[in-house]
Amino acid sequence: VAMAHLAGRLAQRWCPSSLQVISFPVVQLHLNRTAMRASQKDFENAMNQVKLLKKDPGNEVKLKLYSLYKQATEGPCNMPKPGVFDLINKAKWDAWNALGNLPKETARQNYVDLVSSLSSSLESSSQVEPGTDRKSTGYETLMVTSEDGITKIMLNRPTKKNALNVEMYHEIMHALKAASKDDSAITVLTGNGDYYSSGNDLTNFTDIPPGGVEEKAKNGAILLREFVGCFIDFPKPLIALVNGPAVGISVTLLGLFDAVYASDRATFHTPFSHLGQSPEGCSSYTFPKIMSPAKATEMLVFGKKLTAGEACAQGLVTEVFPDSTFQKEVWTRLKAFAKLPPNAMRISKEIIRNREKEKLHAVNAEECSVLQGRWLSDECMNAVVNFLSRKSKL
Ligand SMILES: CCCCCCCCCCC/C=C/C(=O)SCCNC(=O)CCNC(=O)[C@H](O)C(C)(C)COP(=O)(O)OP(=O)(O)OC[C@H]1O[C@@H](n2cnc3c(N)ncnc32)[C@H](O)[C@@H]1OP(=O)(O)O
Fold first, then answer.
1. What GO MF terms are annotated (predicted)?
2. What is the DSSP annotation of 214-236?
3. Torsion of CA 333, 339, 343, 348, to 10 degrees
4. Which residue has the higher pLDDT, 74 or 390?
5. Which residue has the higher pLDDT, 379 or 207?
6. What are the φ/ψ torsions at residue 187 (nearest 5 degrees)?
7. Do the beta carbons of residue 139 and residue 172 sit within 8 Å?
8. In testing the pocket of ligand 1, which one of 10, 99, 161 has its CB within 8 Å of the most ligand atoms?
9. What is the pLDDT of residue 136?
10. Site to substitute for ligand 1 among 200, 274, 284, most atoms within 8 A of C-beta
């Protein structure tokens, strides 16, 4: 009740004059002209574009804009944390602080990318006919952009370390289906902020439907099976850019990608036993094949966290880059890949992957069915309650 009350107060304070939060970074603009770089002009243009947005992009996006602006202009957050009752400033501080040591240049680029995706999605969503699926143009939990033959799907809940809530599972499936049909040659999945993803959002376990926990677990297994199925069936080269730590399902899915590039800040952690759960994303099959059964056991059963270097040595990661040059180096490479003949790439992927597809779908079905049982276990319920009660979320 207290949380709902706080959320209501936040919404009341933020909703009225649509762009209240995003106007803040704009009026506080103090450009450090001596530090100008190539993208400074884009950054300034993006700030102007923000003022012209016709629709309110929502509080989560406005906080994102605010935090990227602060990171791009001032660097990592070193302000004292506002008190718990200073709700708006605390939310802003949290968003900025969540960016950790994200370099100023990357923050500036992310700000520009975010504004560009907003401008196109909010403009075109105002043109869609009534009844058209709004998610084909605007996403709540993702930033999807397509240029230079590359569709980029960016997980966009940085203040929650890009944890996958139910909406995000649906939006990723939607984005993958759209990317499989668009005219891009390759598709990239990455994370916004300091994390790639912290895996399944543990609050997914909290809203229990009238049918009780059994119904919840059954629906969860159906959703998970469909979600992983989209990765198994994805027809174009699918590349993960692991920009920071990855946890749980965001790690296991990597076995279904065609290439995995990681920043040296990334770590790979699958604490399934700690959570009373079991492996998914076909990792019970792909990981032993990729890295040997014993190494897979260390990760999937004992929850050993790997550095990017270790994950690369074990074949889960294709190549590791220093964080400071990660974005520049991988995007140069991806742009070159995207110029290759797209049909040849699809066909080559097909021949590499297709003979495994049936097996992967069977593994996926089995893993989901086992997890459905785990979600009802005391071990799992206790672990989720422990996480959520850590900060009085229950
Ligand atoms: C029956 C249910 C059906 C469900 C629907 C289908 C589900 C399919 C499920 C597929 C199976 C997937 C399995 C997994 O992925 S297992 C892995 C789950 N993830 C975790 O256990 C990670 C939990 N998070 C953490 O340990 C830490 O947050 C982390 C180490 C990632 C970062 O720590 P740090 O101290 O740096 O930051 P905070 O903890 O303060 O995090 C910032 C805020 O983000 C929230 N957060 C982060 N991760 C999650 C998460 N996974 N779930 C929910 N919330 C998360 C965190 O609470 C903070 O929020 P506040 O600022 O509001 O406090």
1. delta(3)-delta(2)-enoyl-CoA isomerase activity; fatty-acyl-CoA binding
2. HHHHHHHHHHHHHHHHHHHH--S
3. -30
4. 74
5. 379
6. -125, 140
7. no
8. 161
9. 39
10. 200
